Amino acid sequence: MTTPTTLAQLPLNQAAVVERISGSHAFVRRLLSLGVSPGSGISVVRTAPLGDPIQVQIGRLQLAIRRAEAGQVHLQQS
Amino acid sequence: MSAPLRVATVGNPNVGKSSLINAIAGSNLSVGNWPGTTVDRLSISFDLDQVRVEWVDLPGTYSLAGATSEESITREELLNSPPDVVVSVLDAGNLERNLGLCLELSELGLPMVVVLNLVDEARAHGIEVDPRKLADCLGVEVIETVASRGTGCAEVKQALLRASASRSLVAYPEHFQSALHELNESNRWRAISLLSEEVPGLQTSELSRRLRGQLEQVQDPFLTVAEARLNMARHLTGDVEVRLQPGVSLSEKIDRILLHPWLGLPIFMLGMLEVFRFTYLFSAPWIAYLEVVKTVLSGWVTSWGLAPLVQSFLVHGVIDGAGTVAAFSPVLFLLYLAMAFLEASGLLARTTFLFDQVMKWVGLPGRSLIPLLLGFGCNVPAIYSTRILPNLGDRLRVALAIPFMACSARLTVFVLFGAIFFPKNAPYVVLGLYLLGLLLGLLTAFLTRGMVPQDSDRTGIMEMPPYRFPSWKAIFRQAWLRTRSFLRDAAGMILGAVLLVWFLHQVPSGKPENSLYAGVSQALTVPLAPLGIHDWRLAGALMPGFIAKEVVVGTLGVSFLGEEPVAACGPLDGLQQLGSGFLIALKDTLLAVPQLVGVPSAELPPDESPGGLSAAIGRACDSAGALAYMVFLLLYTPCVATVAAIGYEFGRRWAIFSVLWQVSVAWLAGWITYQLAS
Hints:
The complex is a heterodimer. Chain A is an alpha+beta fold. Chain A has a 5-stranded antiparallel β-sheet with strand order 4-3-2-1-5. Chain A contains 2 helices and 5 strands; from the N terminus they run βαβββαβ. In chain A, a hairpin with a 2-residue loop joins strand 3 and strand 4. Chain B is of the alpha/beta class. In chain B, helix 3 links the parallel strand 5 (85-91) and strand 6 (111-117). In chain B, helix 8 crosses helix 9 (206-218). At the A-B interface, helix 1, strand 2 and strand 4 of A face helix 3, helix 10, helix 11, helix 14 and strand 11 of B. Strand 4 of chain A pairs antiparallel with strand 11 (462-463) of chain B.
């Protein structure tokens, strides 16, 4: 089984750890200031009824993020 | 008395900053806009131990460095007119993330008080934060609060007077420290920002650019800074926080239902229907009461035996005009109330989540659905509610789409015409009109994609805050302040327009068919002829319809059947009517409560227009023309109040554009309808 490399590929309710975030400064800053950073534990809670965006959980924080942007959140390979 | 003590609150969104200022304000809260923007500015002032305190609530933000309007306002305020005390508001349940901004803030070196808010909610989630330990670490006073209940607010006030200067706690890597040292800039936050990224409005120097270039050789300094701050926040949180094993939170339980894969969307639709039902049920008794007030006032004026022209001016100009303005307020107030509730409870964020995919088709974020749907209630609050959208370009496009939504005022006309011309299919005709409006509104938003400026910081990331039961006091106050500002801003325009139409009716005196109003109406039938509208009375009613669509049916009544005589009433008789009318409205409001729960009905409300009007209109045009008239009336222009709202939020240029665009669309759609139907 291949391990997911980005948040967009992470199956529901599976724990993962953020390795790095790519993309524009605005995007990276937004995630960092929300507390999503390299080393953060992250999981996908649910998918929106229409397939996008996804709801992710980081600690107690719940975030909605579009799939395209979730693809810029790279996960650690165990 | 000495110079006032200037205080500013800073914090992430959803940490209860506005609850805090509301709790401290008592009754003297004032709401305005930040200069040059439409971001709400809340402020209060009060006396504290003989010191005048001027307190302003800065917009919720996650950092001080970004380019969003919230970040820019906060940054400029803190740098250009630094307050005497910064109140940093933290959510005790989300300490690590909240400390990020707090640590950034402390690099400004301003006197600071930390407010640890929502401690009750954190405790419910098994999170305990030790305020004394946190105060020791930060070197400033920390006060626990539950702002929505007012707990701890008195202590916050007292702490303002003894606030001590904050100091920077974040340890940056060696190479960054030495660059900071070399830059030798007194304000530490400014120095760090200069070295790490482009901050709008921060003047770089040759030295700062060179140092930043050197830092980039090692690592993107933006990441260096972000990581250092995060590590510090994480470290601090570990020191002061105790966490018990959390169970499934209540929010998650609610989300499991409201965001359910296939129950989520139907539940949302039912919820929106409930908002409209609530608005309709609770506003109807008071709109009826305003009619009573109007009748009594008119009756009093009539009993004075004034000259006919003066009497007509007072009754049909001033009182009718003021009545039109006042009739807006119950609906506005209730829709604003619903809006504030959606926003403060956390439901709004869920809407975005549910509908992001749909709205993406027209290039808008999911939450733009809310202003559009509110438009079906009344366009005016819908325009103001576009403020929930972070991006100015998106806001404008939604605002241009909103007037296409068939507001409840237009329904009165549809009901009348539907009953006359399509007695069997009226509900379907009305439904078709609603869908047509929605479709053309979305098309407008789609077509204007390239026409309006877009912010560069545009991401689809959004926090989904835990569900909260909002403080009623704050919600009621917000709804009332917004309704009041509508009455203040739009009253003049509406009143002026009513008086103008009255004037057109009077000049020259004599038969209504010879009045200036009839003349202008006659001229209007020329462009409307291709739509099958030849009767001047139908065309003319579009003019007052521009003031408020509520008055179209009334105007048609007067044009076709003549003015109904106003019955005079004596002072005591009038007072008695006012009193009993008020009691009836109160009773009907209470009786409406059980009706909130019930099966949504597909039936149209009853037609309440004067008898004889239906027959008269039935003779005035054929059914194809009637359909074209309904389509034209649905689309032709936002009402005066909506135009005023667009102008106020986005500038006069866009208000004019909106009117011209809609008239063109309406004529074209009406023409096509007439051609297809006849």
